[in-house]
Write the structure tokens for this entry.
Amino acid sequence: MSEQRLKFDTLAVHAGDRKSTGKWTPVTTPIHTATSFFYSDAADLDRVFAGELEGPSYSRHGNPTNEALEELAATLESGEGALACSTGMAALNIAILAALVDRRRVLLAANALYGATINMLMKVLEPSGVEVVWADFCDEQAVEAAIAEHRPGAMLMETISNPLLRVAPLDRIAALANAAGAQLIVDSTFSTPLITRPLEFGAHFVVHSLTKYLSGHGDVLGGLVVANEPNLVPLRSLAKALGPLLGPFEAYLAMRGIKTFPLRMQRQCANAAVVARWLAAHPRVARVYYPGDPNHPDAGHISRLFAPDLFGAMVSFEVKDAGREEVFRFMNALRLVAPATSLGDVHTMVLYPLIASHRDLSPKHRARMGIGDNLIRLSTGIEAVEDITADLDQALR
Ligand SMILES: Cc1ncc(COP(=O)(O)O)c(C=O)c1O
């Protein structure tokens, strides 16, 4: 199959599969549960360990089910290879370690990031000797100045920031990183490769929480790192040393999920556009954050970086005059929308950043990021959109 010429939706269904085992070829990749593999000639196993012959040896070094998923992920993200990890956090961690392996241990991070990512930078990486510096990645001049001042070895950003849905100029940030010899790591969980592919803009590592849109059904915890050749070497060698890999059962489920991901994502994006418009007109809603809003502060970057008419399926909103108690009341009143801690699934969910994604940050830190006590983050599912808005309406009243 000449995969490069096929369209994205076709690749999502076929890439990575159809590995022949001799006379027959399974249409989908089976779950390889074996932890170790042997060859009829021990010399071949020796060559596999030496990297001279392709094939599995020990599952921490690579497993055929994971490899099929990795090939699929790399194809969708326009990368040369990928690593499937046990969680999105494990993927972020190993991407940062790989990016800094031969560079100054200084990481320039966007100040709008997922709370657990901020926590990892401040509580794990800084104490282990990585200097972490911060900048507003939506402000190119601030990024340029931070690069000149701190000379980072790597930089970290999200395509759509969590939870205020800002979109930084990824292409320009990548150009700045490349000019400075820094590696750019992009968490693309919220946008997915259907909407934007950071490696095509010059980024060096793309990270996903596989738990979200790509798997999509709320039943897999996983992560992905996608990269190009020179960076795949430290990535794979660190993976062998640290062992953060995804299990083959989850790899199978994730791959099964990805086959319908473009269909789901298109429906989720369309539903989000309707929900955002509906929320903006609701008397109990003070403010809506949505990348498809023509007045979005980053509308110029969005039209340059995103596929036409796809703005992601996340909508955040502030409830008028609400605090923790009113938000809890709203969450408790929901009957269809799940007040559950995740995003990207087929079912619509709301999350309260104050108690979930950004709970580990101090109130001052949250306030500095613009995350108020009345902010709710909504992940739109594939349900009939009238049912979603009807449920939000009865819970808001
Ligand atoms: C943007 C983003 N990156 C990374 C993660 C971490 O993913 P996981 O929960 O799979 O470790 C999350 C989780 O919500 C996320 O929202």
Summary: The chain has a mean pLDDT of 96.
